[in-house]
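Example 347.
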Amino acid sequence: MFSLASRRLVNAATNNSRFFSSTAVMGKKVAVLGAAGGIGQPLSLLLKLSPNVSELSCYDIVGTPGVAADLSHIPTASSVTGNLPAAGSWPPSHNTGIEAALTGASVVVIPAGVPRKPGMTRDDLFNTNAGIVKGLVEACADFCPDAVLAIISNPVNSTVPIAAEVLKKKGVYNPKKLCGVTTLDVCRANTFVAASMGKDPKDVNVTVIGGHAGITILPLFSQVPGFSPSDEDREALTVRTQFGGDEVVKAKAGAGSATLSMAYAGYLFTEEVLRAMNGADDVVQCAFVESSLTDAPFFSSPCKFGPDGVTEVMGFGEISAYEQKWMDQMLPDLKKQIQKGIDFANQ
Ligand SMILES: NC(=O)c1ccc[n+]([C@@H]2O[C@H](COP(=O)([O-])OP(=O)(O)OC[C@H]3O[C@@H](n4cnc5c(N)ncnc54)[C@H](O)[C@@H]3O)[C@@H](O)[C@H]2O)c1
Ligand SMILES: O=C(O)C[C@H](O)C(=O)O
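Predicted structure in complex with (2S)-2-hydroxybutanedioic acid:
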């Protein structure tokens, strides 16, 4: 079931007739917070092309009127608005502000916040991004308490627990509707393994579990049918998946982190959430959610999605002794990063 869903994800981006469909059947309002940024702009572009989106709401502290005006010339059935915190919006007749941006949204995707520079860990972003995510999630609680929230802002291992605490304080926490987006880790693992196996990536589906930072990212290569790498290759692929973000940060040399691949991953994740909201009963994808699979209170694993978000946090099956070693190493770090988020929200 998971591999079928994964194949659909890839097909969604390669099937032009679906991509450029002009019929927005049961389309939903989707808000992107941080929509003028490196991820936000290409993510908004991809969502403007989605037949599952009827209204695209772009919100940022700068630049969204221009982003929205630009996107609005694309001939798809969805409408688009550009929203700023105070004065200025696109179209000019539209009420601006976060209330207008969020009201009626079914899904809110949050890539707002600063990215890494070489030499930084994702945790080094905490001091800036924790407050940004807290403020935005407070607004979500006020103006779209029933929306599914998809958190991209790093450090995801801490920003998702912050969001949970904020929603609890506001009395609207629904664990089925709060997800950290770890889809980029799955994309990377699929890409790297497909290259190593000489396969088309659409025929590969790696389950990636844990969190979204360094060794907390654990690709389960032992579960890939027909894949039996040497110990050396398995180690290299595991570490490359764990540190794929660093590879991009280094190559961008101070100009930020992954934006284009993340926009693609964020689009895939959102499309699948929307497809499930519209009644598809085969949607399974990895997400960082409240979980009792391990003793970390949040954990990424395959999740089944339905009309109201996550309907089942699925197990991750048998893992190899090699993977268990990584799991044992990861859990203390992951729990610490989760607790840091919880403490921040409650200070
Ligand atoms: N989850 C993942 O897999 C993943 C992958 C890549 C990047 N990221 C993270 O995504 C975040 C964004 O990365 P980017 O490259 O797009 O950065 P960016 O700096 O290009 O864009 C961030 C945008 O957020 C906006 N912003 C800042 N504060 C805001 C607020 N209070 N309200 C609304 N918007 C606000 C900025 O104006 C900017 O346009 C970073 O934290 C990065 O680490 C996560
Ligand atoms: O590496 C980063 O800082 C951005 C993102 O989390 C990624 O995995 O690319």
